[in-house]
Sequence to fold (389 residues):
Amino acid sequence: MRLGIVGAGLQGLEAAYLARRAGWETRLLDRRADAPARGLADSFALGDAGDPAVLDRELRGVDLLLPALEDTPVLEAIAAWAGRRGIPLAFDPAAYAVSSSKQASNRLFRSLGMALPRPWPECGLPVLVKPDGLSGSRGVRVFREPASWQSWLAAHTEERVGWIAQEYLEGPSYSIEVLGAPGAHRPLQVTALDMDAGYDCKRVRAPASLSAELAREMERLAAGLADALGLRGLMDLEVILHDGRLKLLEIDARLPSQTPIAVFWSTGYNLVEALGELARDPEGAMPPPLPPAAGRRAAVLEHVHVTAGRLEVCGEHLLARRGPLRVERDFFGAEEAITDRVPGRSDWVATLLSSGRDAGQAWSRRCDAVEAIRRAHGLEACLDPEPPR
Fold:
């Protein structure tokens, strides 16, 4: 299988990693020469994916095309090019158009009677503000004081339509992927998301320590949203558990970052491989189920940043600014790492991957790896920041 991946950022890193695990050949295209995923692909080309001539030159002849970016005009150009060339596309443009707008997503949630945070001005402070068209933690701000909130409102009078303002809820966050085509959607494993001080995901734990009842509710929510979207491909759903109730935060109809690798380490289920099979046979049967629970493991995926004197657990977007990453086995005791570490350099990042027969053993191995890094580099501090409360 020759997989063309467009976009070498965090989504591209996920795609290249899992494609390598599937034994596929990968061709990667990006406009940035030092993009993170470059070190994981079999070949890399520099160019503008919005230009059909570049796609012809670099990706013609691939068996499958997977967009791994969030640029709507470029995505439209990629979909049109793939259609003309008869190349299967592992992406659903119609579902993405809804999920890429938080306002459109919230309208869908409300039409289906699903619970979500109350919008401002129905809610009081603290209030969370996020851009309508960006995913994850990008642009997220939380206002707790009336003066700062009123100042922000006054400064954004004209552009407020491009923002979502809603009540800020505290509680653990969870995610789940759903894969399939209309009438045949498969919810996958629920994962737990841990955030850093900037509300960026720093750690994924699989499986989540969520009750069976709430896990089934997440599966029902994910499948219901996929049906409502007419999803033909992959989507993930993020929720927060507040006062014992799941509240929907966002959906993304694209390959997410972080959680597919964590699910793979926990279950062996390769989302990129399953998504590729679906794209090549869109009218096929229900995607394969997860392996039986008895054969699964617990996994911890965590991002760390090492600088002179300290290690800090950090959100994933730090990795997006780093140069080509590579995979290393047995990384200071972690079973595997995706890293730019070079011996002798004091500033580097790594995504540590640890697993065990249960959550306790996986976490213990994670802690052993962090301590081994601290000792080997003579670090005085290990920081694990959390959102302010």
Summary: The first strand starts at residue 2 and ends at 6. Residues 298-383 form one domain.
